[in-house]
Amino acid sequence: MERISTGPRHTAYKIGDITVTSLRDGYVDMPVRRLRQPGDIAFGDDLPSQVSLVDGALRLSVNAFAIDDGNDITLIDTGSSNAWHSTMGHLPEALREAKIATGRIRTVAFTHTHLDHIHGLILADGGDGFPQLSRLLVPRAELDMFREVARLERFHDRAQPFDAGQRLGANIETIAAAGHEVGHTCFRVTSASETLLIWGDTVHVPSLQFDRPEIAWEFDADREQARASRLRLLALAADNACFVAGAHLDSPGVGRVFRTETGFRFEPV
Question: Any idea what the CATH number is for the domain that residue 53 is in?
């Protein structure tokens, strides 16, 4: 993997014959109590020292990823637009900085349907984020959840379900990663013997959950299943020399995973 351009809101990489661009939608600050130890125990004064806080809160980057095969662009997740905190919703700026024309984005696929991943379909002014969109792909298990989001009503009938193990194109395959949400999905991007796992919300707090993957997140729909999926994807990445890209890894959120004596560690590209 080679980094080919970077800026405050984007970093682009060459992976084989394709380009993958990390796009920073912004960040969100969350209370430490969102982290849960086994037994559903929240952290107090026992928060490990390697976890850095900003004004007492966990700062999570919010990233989306564009996959350019030279013809069309597939966008994995879209950020939150103006549906949540004002520190988010900067995907349009990131796209402009990366010189990605929205008209070239023909496919949007979601890792899952939480609001910080789907609302970027609509701009803050109410317009369509991707005017030439021809495929809108939602995990099958979350299709009904997507169609309950009133703000995205005009996209309800355009959404198409996809299943784990399905190929979205020559370079993209889906991998089941349920737990954080019922249909949470990882996208395996492969070109010229290089592989990148775009894994959504597998890890929320990288300073802690690589070393201690048993730590869950309050908003995991099924915390035990989320732990199992995290361990499986960490092992897949470490044992097969895959690169990883995470929605909440510190921007640009791309790197490698390595095993340690007690867990895993993350090394940014």
Answer: 3.60.15.10
**Alpha-carbon radius of gyration of the chain:** 17
Compute the C-alpha angle 63/79/237, nearest 5°: 35
The residues, ordered by sequence, that sit 6+ positions from 118 with a Cβ below 8 Å of its Cβ are 77, 78, 110, 146, 149, 152
Work out the pLDDT band at 203, boundaries 50, 70, 90.
Answer: very high
pLDDT(134) > 90: yes
Q: Taking a C-beta distance cutoff of 8 angstroms, is the pair 18, 10 a contact?
A: no
* Nearest C-alpha neighbor of 237 from the set 267, 204, 201: 267
DSSP assignment of 156-180: GGGEEEE-TT-BSSSSEEEEE-TTS
41 CB contacts (<8 Å, ≥6 apart)?
A: none
> Quick one: pLDDT at residue 230?
98
Domain count, the chain: 1
At 162-190, the pLDDT tens digits run 999 999 999 999 999 999 999 999 999 99
> What is the DSSP track for 225-268?
HHHHHHHHHHHHHHHTT-EEE-SSSSTT-EEEEEE-SSSEEEEE
Q: Using alpha carbons, select from 188, 39, 47 the residue that is nearest to residue 202.
A: 188
Provide CB contacts within 8 A for 184, sequence distance 6+.
111, 112, 139, 177, 178, 200, 201, 226, 229
Q: What is the pTM of this model?
A: 0.98
Cα separation, 174 vs 163, in Å, equals: 7
**Residue 255: domain span:** 2-268
Q: Which residue, 122, 236, 207, 219, is CA-closest to 179?
A: 219
